[in-house]
Design goal:
It is a single chain. With 360 residues, this protein is α/β, with parallel strands linked by helices. It is built from 16 helices and ten strands. Helix 1 packs parallel to helix 3. The chain is globular and about 60 Å long. Pfam families: ECH_2. InterPro entries: ClpP/crotonase-like_dom_sf, ECH_dom, HIBYL-CoA-H. Keywords: Hydrolase.
């Protein structure tokens, strides 16, 4: 049983799911997606199950994303499995967002890409001090998916835009400040949380019982949020209409408290896939006005073009296959990405009729 990629157990009317590929940072495979979805569906219809706890095995990661190397090989072999993976992964993520019972996600270590897709749908997201959370896709020539166009675009101000187009990771205080987490629990308290879960009497609604328990265990003292300190600069620069304007504004930053950050941010943008950076900005701007379902549908629309016409195959080759760390992006510079090129990827997409931002 310990060899299974997903472990499932029931204790005290709680279903426990553990991503069980610690050597691979619990990266998601297609079998894992299917096991998770099947088990969640079974527990949704079981009146004996009141809540679900989701976690990753090991100390390094909750989940560091999808199995990118496998997706690369699938596309090369033209077996269609990479497309199946995205369809089923997004369906799982969307299912978690609407799950009829509270899902408690215990987030420790890396929570990246596909891990964010699982976590952001959970009713309660608990982060340890070791969390490194983010959507780093632009670094491999891809764009924030798994609902990233929904949850990033709904972060306060322009925080989600900044995280999406730069691909930076954030720590627990920033995750809480940005609305990507609900509670901070020191990692040494995770075992105590499990003991308490095993002894809960369920005298009130499960969601209320879980929130009350977390409130009694949560750390009261947190480090300061770096995003909070940077918020005035982030909102000013990343609200601009396009990447060219954002870069020019960052280059013109003269306030001493933001100058080093602006230089670092420019360096990050220059090191990412130019096409992915520009497409991500457009994706997040569109995502603000779309429902959750339409965000997933739009991401899938982009997926079905990106392996052939985007930068992901070159990014994975350079960073994971040949490891020369010298991707040949197409085009090679941010200044060479035209608005027309970006818009071609969105052509033909139509949101569901009748959906509005308020309904999202």
């Amino acid at each position: 049983m310990s060899e299974a990629p997903v472990l499932a157990a029931v204790r005290n009317r709680i279903g426990h799911l553990t991503l069980n590929r610690p050597a691979g940072l619990n990266a998601l495979s297609l079998p894992m997606v299917r096991l998770l979805h099947r088990q969640l569906q079974a527990w949704a219809g079981d009146p004996q199950i009141l809540a679900v706890v989701l976690r990753g095995a090991g100390e390094k990661a909750f989940c560091a994303g999808g199995d990118i190397r496998w997706l690369y090989e699938s596309y090369k072999q033209a077996d269609g499995q990479h497309d199946t993976f995205f369809v089923e992964e997004y369906a799982l993520d969307q299912y978690i967002h609407a799950y009829p019972k509270p899902v408690l996600a215990l987030l420790d270590g890396f929570v990246l890409g596909g891990g964010m897709g699982l976590a952001q749908g959970a009713a309660l997201r608990v982060v340890s001090e070791r969390v490194r959370m983010g959507m780093p896709e632009v670094g491999i020539g891809y764009f924030p998916d798994v609902g990233g166009s929904y949850f990033l675009s709904r972060m306060p101000g322009e925080l989600g835009t900044y995280l999406g187009v730069t691909g930076v990771h954030v720590r627990s205080a920033d995750a809480l400040y940005g609305g990507l987490a609900d509670c901070h629990l020191p990692v040494e308290q995770f075992a105590e949380l499990d003991r308490c879960l095993d002894q809960m009497g369920w005298n009130v609604h499960p969601a209320e019982a879980l929130r009350t328990l977390l409130a009694t265990l949560a750390a009261n003292r947190l480090p300061a949020s770096e995003l909070a300190a940077l918020r005035p600069a982030i909102d000013r620069h990343f609200a601009l209409p396009d990447i060219a304007a954002i870069r020019a504004s960052l280059q013109a930053e003269r306030r001493p408290e933001y100058r080093d950050w602006a230089e670092e941010t420019l360096g990050l943008l220059e090191g990412r896939s130019p096409l992915a950076v520009c497409l991500t900005l457009e994706l997040l701007r569109r995502g603000r006005a779309l429902s959750l379902a339409d965000c997933f549908a739009l991401e899938l629309h982009l997926d079905r073009q990106w392996f052939a016409s985007g930068d992901i195959m070159e990014g994975v080759r350079a960073l994971l296959i040949d490891r020369d760390k010298a991707p040949r992006w197409n085009p090679p510079r941010l200044a060479d990405v035209t608005p027309e090129r970006v818009q071609t990827f969105f052509a033909g997409f139509r949101p569901s009729a009748g959906k509005t931002r308020r309904q999202a």
